[in-house]
Design a protein that fits this description.
The protein has a single domain, classed as Alpha-Beta Complex (Maf protein), CATH 3.90.950.20. The model has no long low-confidence stretch (mean pLDDT about 90). The longest helix has 21 residues. Helix 1 runs parallel beside helix 6. About 45% of the residues lie in helices and about 20% in strands. The chain is an alpha/beta fold. It is built from six helices and five strands, in the order H-E-H-E-H-H-H-E-E-E-H.
Length: about 160
């Protein structure tokens, strides 16, 4: 994992690109992993952990998307990725929303172990959507599984 993260930071730096993240259920796991790499400050523009719908909306997520598709959806992950990229003027945005084995009394919809992720390329206005089911019944391990998925997708995209 460490080598993949180094490759991501190196690729972004070498190509004069930047990234930002808006995470919910992962609580900042993605940005934490990125900032463990020396030189990440050259490519990381901004990060937000938005557990509540209220703050997703304040950060630029369209409230009507949450209302129509729910907070636990591909569409909301897309909005999060786009909104954080637009807010920070970064080349790439990552949006993550979902449930890690816990029922949400404020948002009763959606599968309890599904996580939606999106990588947004602002210059191309391109969305790369992906989702996984986590079932380790341990939030730390679930977050690591999501982190692995995001790192692999991001590295694949940057290497194309």
């Amino acid at each position: 994992m460490e080598n993949k993260l180094k490759k991501i930071v190196s690729s972004l730096k070498d190509n004069n690109k930047t990234i930002s993240t808006m995470e919910s259920c992962t609580g900042g796991a993605i940005v934490n992993a990125l900032t463990n790499v020396p030189g990440a400050s050259n490519v990381l523009k901004y990060s937000a952990v938005t557990y509540s719908n209220e703050f997703k909306i304040k950060m630029g997520v369209d409230a009507s998307v949450i209302e129509k598709y729910t907070v636990y959806s591909k569409e909301t992950a897309r909005e999060m990725a786009r909104a954080i990229s637009d807010f920070a003027l970064s080349d790439y945005g990552i949006g993550i929303t979902g449930k890690l084995g816990k029922r949400d009394p404020h948002n009763k919809c959606g599968d309890d172990n599904q996580v939606f992720m999106c990588l947004y390329d602002r210059k191309k206005n391109k969305y790369i959507d992906f989702d996984i089911f986590v079932d380790r019944y341990n939030r730390r391990d679930d977050k690591k599984e999501v982190l692995d998925e995001v790192v692999n997708k991001l590295l694949d995209y940057l290497e194309d």
